[in-house]
């Protein structure tokens, strides 16, 4: 799909990759606005097409006592407010069929989590809202099999579909990114690399997912070199205190420097 079709997305003529970025979860209005304000400042300065990301609910948790959110409507209204205040598109995850119509009233892009991308009813419900649908590739799925997930959207009369690779399971507690999959998935849809979730270390005995944030730049650079259309990077001004996925998020203070370096790589690749 042409990313220009995402409502309110800017800087589409810059020939940069586009960016989905924000906190893992909406923990409150002040934190969400703080992150959004800085990300808008960076994306405007560097001419990066930008979509603010924040989950209104965290349903895929390791333990029953894990943080899940501040309340569905409260979090969705914060996402809506951010979109309106900064005039930018927003994206959130959905987990149940009933979430699709509800979330579509507040955000511009509906994201299907990797664990759920084979759930036909969920994918079709997202597609039928008419919103852009971002399909996370299952950690257990081949890149080629994502063609069928894409067709579930397009066969539901919605051409606004993207794929996001977030790594493939490598044993029980690690993920790898197979960069051979990028050109395969680009044949089916606009393709994004989820840098931070690709560095998760799931299934820890503690019930809290680990991560390797020191590898964020390595994975992001490789994605840009291999011509992904977009990047997905979760960020927080204090990852150590984030209520979800802090172990693999990028500290917000490092975002601008990383983006500048990645843009230089992109410009080099574009010149070939």
Automatic annotation (TrEMBL):
**Gene3D superfamilies the UniProt entry points to:** Aldolase class I
Keyword check for Cytoplasm: yes
The catalytic activity, as recorded, is: D-arabinose 5-phosphate + phosphoenolpyruvate + H2O = 3-deoxy-alpha-D-manno-2-octulosonate-8-phosphate + phosphate
- Example GO molecular function: 3-deoxy-8-phosphooctulonate synthase activity
According to the lineage, what is the superkingdom? Bacteria
Which EC numbers does the record give?
Answer: 2.5.1.55
Question: Where does this one sit in the cell?
Answer: Cytoplasm
Q: What class of enzyme is it?
A: transferase
Residue ranges of every copy of the DAHP synthetase I/KDSA domain listed in the record: 8-268
Q: What keywords tag this UniProt record?
A: Cytoplasm, Transferase
Pathway assignment? Carbohydrate biosynthesis; 3-deoxy-D-manno-octulosonate biosynthesis; 3-deoxy-D-manno-octulosonate from D-ribulose 5-phosphate: step 2/3; Bacterial outer membrane biogenesis; lipopolysaccharide biosynthesis
User: Would you tell me the Gene Ontology cellular component terms?
Assistant: cytoplasm
Give the similarity note: Belongs to the KdsA family.
Which PANTHER family does the annotation name? PHOSPHO-2-DEHYDRO-3-DEOXYHEPTONATE ALDOLASE
The protein's name in its UniProt record: 3-deoxy-8-phosphooctulonate synthase
Upper classification of the source organism reads:
Bacteria, Pseudomonadati, Bacteroidota, Flavobacteriia, Flavobacteriales
Q: Which gene specifies this protein's sequence?
A: kdsA
């Amino acid at each position: 799909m042409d990313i220009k079709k995402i409502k309110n997305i800017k800087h589409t003529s810059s020939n940069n990759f586009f960016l989905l970025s924000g906190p893992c979860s909406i923990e409150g209005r002040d934190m969400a606005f703080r992150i959004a304000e800085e990300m808008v400042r960076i994306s405007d300065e560097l001419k990066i097409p930008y979509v603010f990301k924040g989950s209104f609910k965290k349903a895929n948790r390791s333990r029953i006592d894990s943080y899940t959110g501040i309340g569905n409507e409260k979090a969705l209204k914060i996402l809506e407010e951010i979109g309106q205040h900064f005039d930018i598109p927003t994206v959130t995850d959905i987990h149940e069929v009933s979430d699709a119509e509800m979330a579509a009233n507040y955000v511009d892009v509906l994201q299907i989590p990797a664990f759920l991308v084979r759930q036909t009813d969920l994918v079709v419900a997202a597609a039928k809202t008419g919103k852009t649908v971002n399909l996370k590739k299952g950690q257990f799925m081949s890149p080629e099999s994502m063609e069928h997930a894409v067709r579930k959207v397009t066969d539901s009369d919605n051409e606004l579909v993207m794929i996001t690779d977030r790594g493939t399971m490598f044993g029980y507690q690690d993920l790898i990114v197979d960069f051979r999959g990028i050109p395969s998935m680009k044949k089916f849809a606009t393709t994004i690399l989820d840098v931070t979730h690709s560095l998760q270390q799931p299934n820890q005995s503690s019930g809290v997912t680990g991560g390797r944030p020191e590898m964020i730049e390595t994975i992001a650079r490789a994605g840009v070199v291999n011509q992904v259309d977009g990047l997905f990077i979760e960020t927080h001004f204090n990852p150590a205190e984030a209520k979800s996925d802090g172990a693999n998020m990028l500290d917000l203070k490092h975002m601008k420097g990383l983006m500048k370096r990645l843009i230089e790589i992109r410009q080099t690749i574009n010149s070939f």
